[in-house]
TrEMBL record:
It comes from Zophobihabitans entericus. It comes from the Bacteria. This is Uncharacterized protein. Keywords: Signal. Residues 1-19 form the signal peptide.
């Protein structure tokens, strides 16, 4: 009898009304859509790097610059020899965590919680920033050029992955949230950018390249490119320039970093610190664009200007500080937008000889010799110190009567026509002359050298400017 009563009680509890309640509870609970947290949504809307999108390179997924740079550093790739087509990649993504996204219903974010809106909506490709500040895709021709060739054109390529995505949970209703979505004030696609950071980002040191092709080209492609300048060498002492004068300047052509980017600063230091030869460096337009065949590109070029001893006047009796000797100058580009600050480019060269000019003053060889001697520690240079040429009985290191662009061989061979740096062309150097006296002669022929490195014969009554060389 007791058993029968228990069964009757159970039957009463499971009534039709209670059965209806159980059925309703089995339905999906209505709630709010999942959302990225405020930081991530701000990242998306402000176009910053969204680290749930990445690239797969050489079979490995990369979601941040540090890890990708580390991989590239061990790849053997160089700016000089490699091109964008040598770096192949595909877009990839990873799921969100509860630290990155939230769901008011407590639903779970799985490994596939970040998905494409539609098949192929997340893409990865090569881009660059134009000088006007807009973003542009690399075309097929650009992808086939080396990074240094692109730097000459002012192009700094980077990889961008991005596109419309869906944030979804494993359960819940609604189960997903679109990005972008104007109803939640997100109007931009998530994206992540990857710079190409390889070793040795300085491609060229470029003085005036007027008269750099043809007979002026030494034919040493690993040292000099007549369309771009001198190529950095493994030994600092072999880098351009080795000879200097106040106000002479050149461009560094830099790959892999936009030299104008916010937070990028440039500096130059001299060793020994007591040296009286220094340099200034700035990411600004160089006047060489009007005096050479290398067009200035704001995104990839910085201008380095030498400063050092000058004459107290251009009159007889003038003096000049003694050149303190071989000076190593290091130019450094630093990214100050990150902590700790990070060096993005550096270039070193050693000034071994210094020239002080008498500006526009022409004079007899005897007069100019006296002016140089009066400076204190300077003298008239020989023909071979101004040019590499052979001519009129004088034997230089090259066979034709003109300079060739060779580091360490001669003043004009390094710098080209020195008038290109003068105030006439907007510079600050006092190198105005087109021909300069030398102390060299063969027989009764007194030699002077013009800005093309050509040796010519002058007489005792001939007037020419002078650039005095340090002793």
């Amino acid at each position: 009898m007791q058993t029968l009563l228990v069964l009757l009680n159970v039957a009463i509890i499971i009534s039709p009304a209670n059965a209806l309640l159980s059925a309703e509870s089995a339905k999906t609970i209505q709630g709010q859509s999942p959302r990225f947290n405020a930081t991530y949504e701000s990242t998306i809307q402000n176009g910053k790097n969204f680290d749930l999108l990445g690239i797969n390179y050489s079979g490995v997924d990369y979601f941040n610059q540090i890890n990708f740079t580390s991989k590239l550093a061990s790849s053997g790739l160089t700016y000089m020899n490699n091109k964008p087509n040598d770096i192949t990649f595909t877009p990839t993504r990873k799921g969100a965590t509860t630290a990155q996204a939230t769901d008011s219903n407590g639903d779970i974010f799985g490994p596939d919680s970040v998905a494409e809106r539609t098949t192929g909506s997340i893409t990865a490709d090569w881009y660059y920033t134009t000088t006007a500040g807009s973003e542009s895709l690399l075309n097929a021709t650009q992808k086939a050029q080396t990074f240094c060739e692109l730097a000459i054109a002012g192009v700094v390529p980077y990889i961008k992955v991005g596109g419309p995505i869906i944030l979804k949970t494993s359960y819940g209703d609604p189960i997903s949230q679109n990005y972008p979505d104007s109803t939640i004030a997100i109007t931009k696609n998530p994206q992540n950018k990857f710079n190409i950071e390889l070793n040795d980002p300085v491609c060229y040191a470029s003085p005036s390249l007027t008269y750099a092709t043809g007979v002026y080209d030494p034919g040493t492609p690993l040292k000099f490119n007549p369309a771009a300048g001198f190529i950095p060498q493994a030994t600092i002492a072999n880098n351009f320039p080795t000879m200097g004068g106040d106000g002479l300047f050149f461009n560094l052509v830099v790959a892999g970093v936009n030299v104008q980017a916010p937070g990028i600063t440039w500096s130059a230091t001299s060793t020994p610190s007591a040296s009286n030869v220094t340099a200034t460096v700035a990411a600004e337009k160089s006047i060489l664009s009007s005096a050479s065949n290398l067009n200035y590109r704001a995104n990839t070029m910085v201008m380095v200007t030498l400063r050092g001893p000058v004459a107290s006047s251009f009159e007889i009796g003038a003096t000049a500080p003694k050149f303190t000797g071989a000076t190593t100058i290091k130019v450094t580009g630093t990214d100050t937008s990150v902590t700790p600050n990070r060096v993005v480019a550096s270039y070193q060269f050693q000034i071994k000889n210094w020239y002080v000019t008498r500006s526009t003053v022409n004079g007899l060889l005897t007069t100019q010799t006296a002016w140089c001697s009066g400076l204190g520690s300077y003298r008239i240079p020989t023909a071979s110190e101004l040019t590499t040429a052979t001519g009129l009985g004088w034997t230089g290191i090259t066979t034709t009567n003109n300079y060739q662009r060779i580091v360490g061989a001669s003043l004009f061979g390094e710098w080209g026509p020195v008038y290109a740096y003068s105030k006439t062309y907007g510079g600050i150097a006092e190198f105005y002359g087109t021909s300069y006296w030398t102390s060299s002669k063969v027989g009764s022929s007194l030699f002077y050298v013009n800005n093309l490195g050509t040796i010519s014969a002058g007489s005792t009554s001939f007037n020419a400017p002078v650039a005095c060389r340090s002793i």
